[in-house]
Amino acid sequence: MIVSSALMIWKGLIVITGSESPIVVVLSGSMEPAFHRGDLLFLTNFHDDPIRAGEIVVFKVEGRDIPIVHRVIKIHEKENGTIKFLTKGDNNEVDDRGLYKEGQNWLEKKDVVGRARGFLPYVGMVTIIMNDYPKFKYALLAVMGAYVLLKRES
Questions:
Q1: According to the model, what pLDDT value does residue 67 have?
Q2: CA 123, 129, 132, 134 torsion: positive or negative?
Q3: Are 78 and 66 in contact (CB under 8 A)?
Q4: pLDDT at residue 134 above 70?
Q5: What is the per-residue pLDDT for 153?
Q6: pLDDT surpassing 70 at residue 154
Q7: Which residues form the Peptidase S24/S26A/S26B/S26C domain (predicted)?
Q8: What are the residue boundaries of the structural domains of the chain, listed by start?
Q9: Mean pLDDT of 98-111
Q10: Which of the following CATH numbers is that of domain 2-123: 2.102.10.10, 1.10.3210.10, 2.10.109.10, 3.30.450.40?
Q11: How far is CA 115 from CA 2, 44, 50, 86, 140, in A?
Q12: 3-state SS class at 130
């Protein structure tokens, strides 16, 4: 029941926000001081909204599994209305061209997972701890499983 409710809430958020991943955790310090490692970001991805310089986007690059949270620093708009853009982490020295797939110098709207609309500081640290320390994850799952098995309904 709990799992199906969580899945329905997640799918509902996907529909409401227009983003394939409406909530993400910041995994690195590349966006400090705007966002810190462990911050939980809330995303939207409405296709009618134009992407502008200064906006913080979450994007996926071909060949990488984990989305990246960085700021749009340059926009290249063609006469036919297509937009390409360049990103950079606030705490990084250089732009993200080295992160894009080989031969790619700009991102396109199809690469965007969402745009940051809000955040909760450090709430995602639980996710980071579980990924960094798998034994902690298994211990937490064991405790939760034992609780469910041993708890009696009144």
A1: 94
A2: negative
A3: no
A4: yes
A5: 64
A6: no
A7: 15-101
A8: 2-123, 124-154
A9: 92
A10: 2.10.109.10
A11: 29, 5, 11, 14, 32
A12: helix
pTM, two decimals, is: 0.83
- SS (HEC) of 59-111: ECCCCCCCCEEEEEEEEEECCCCCEEEEEECCCCCCCHHHCCCCCCCCEEHHH
Residue 144 scores a pLDDT above 90 = no
Catalytic annotation, pick one of 4, 19, 21, 30? 30
Asked about 70 being catalytic, the answer comes back as: yes
**What per-residue confidence (pLDDT) applies to 17?**
92
Size (the chain), residues: 154
Active site includes 30?
Answer: yes
36 a catalytic residue: no
Identified catalytic residue from 70, 76, 95, 154: 70
Confidence of residue 72 (pLDDT cuts 50, 70, 90): very high
- 111 in Cβ contact with 51 (< 8 Å): no
